[in-house]
Amino acid sequence: MEKIIKQENELNSSIDEIKEYRKELDVTYSTLVSKSTQLEYTNSLLEKRVRNLSNLNHISRVALSMFNIDKIVDTLADAYFVLTATTRISIYLWEGEKLVNKKIKGSIDFTESFSYPMYLLEKFTNEDYSKIYSDLSRKITILNDEKVIITPLKVKERQLGVILLVQNKDQLLEINNEMISALGIQASIAIDNAMNYAELLEKERISQELELASSIQKQILPKGFERIKGLDIATHFSPAKEVGGDYYDLSLKNNNLSVTIADVSGKGVPAAFLMALSRSMLKTINYVSNYTPAEELDLFNKIVYPDITEDMFITVMNAEYNLDTSLFTYSSAGHNPLVIYKKENDTIDLYGTKGVAIGFIENYNYKENSFELKNGDIIVFYTDGIIECENKNRKLFGTQRLLDIVYRNKNLSAKELKGKILEAIKNFREDYEQTDDITFVILKSVK
Q: Does Kinase appear among the keywords (predicted)?
C-alpha cells in the first residue's frame, strides 16, 4: 500500500512539473509571437520609410529640375497628398511685400493675400513670421477631428512662404511628420532655386534693356559741332549708371547756335526717361519758334508742370549764340552758373540768372542776360556731377577747383581743356565710385 501511495505522489509531482513546463512554453510562445509581430511592424515601417525616401528623392530631382514656380508648387501639392496624410493644402509665397496664395488643393475657402510695408518686413524676426503664419492658419475652417500643420518655407534667413496642411488628428504619426518635414526642406530649396533663377533672368533682361537705352542715349547726342564759325567746341557725357538724367544739346538754326544742358533729379531709368522727354520738348520748341532762351524755358515749364511729380524736377541752362553778331544770351532754370573766362581783362567768374527749376512753379517768367563773346573767351556749361564729385575722404571737387582748371588752361583748345578737366576729376576721385552723371560743354571763341 505504501508503495502505491509513493508512486501516486511521484506521478502527481510529474504532472505538476509538466504543467509548469507548459506554462513556460506558453510564455515563450507568446513572447516569440509578440517579437515576431513587432519585427513585422518594424519591417513594415522600414519598408514604408524606404519607399518614402525613394519617392522623396524622385520628387526632389523633379522639383529641382524645374525653374517655373507655378509648376514646382503643383508638383509639391501632389507630393504632399501622395506621401502624407494630407486632405487639404494651401501654399503661400512671398512676392515682395505680399504674401500671395499660389495653390490650394482640397476644399479650402480662404485664398486672400496679405501686404506688409517693406520697412516692417526688413525688421521682422523669425518669430514675427511665425506669428503671421500662425494667424493665417487660423483662417482655415477645420473639423473637430482635424488639425492644421504649418510648414514654413525658408532657406537660411530668406523667408519664402508657408505651406498649410490639413490632416486628421489620428493620422499624425511619426513617419508622417518626418515626411512633412523632409518635403518642406526640399520644397524650400526648389522654390529658392526657382526664385534665384527668375531674379537672374530679370536682371539680365534689365541689363540688356539698359545697354540698349544707354546706346540710344549716346546716339542721340549731337554730333558734328566740334568746330563751327568762330567757335571751338568740346562736349562730354558720362552717366553714373548705364543711363543717366543729364543731357546736353546743340542745334543750329538761322545762324544761331542753341546750347542746352540739363540735369533731371534722380538717376537711372526714371531720370533717363524724363531726360529724353525734356530733350524732345525743348528741341521741338526751339525748332518751331523764334523764342529767346528765357521764353523757351517759360513754355517748357508750362508744358511739363502738370505732369511732373513733386519729387522730380529739371534744372536747365539754356543759351543761344549768334554767329553773325557774337551775341551770347543765356537763361537759367535753377541750374549751375556758367564758368566764363574773358580774355580781354583776363578774368574768370560764374555767370547765371535767377530762376527756379522746371516743375517747381507753374507760371514762371525766366530771366536772361546777354554779352558779346570775344576772341579767346571761354564758356563752360556743366552739371553738378563735376562740382559735387566726391573722393574717398568725402570731400567735394567744388566750383573753385573747376574755375582754377579752366583759368590755368585758358590757352588750350576746347578739346585739350576737356581733357584737363577729366584728368583733374579722375585724379581727385581716384578709385572712389562715380555717384552722379558728369556732363559739360565747352565753347571757345576762336575768331
A: no
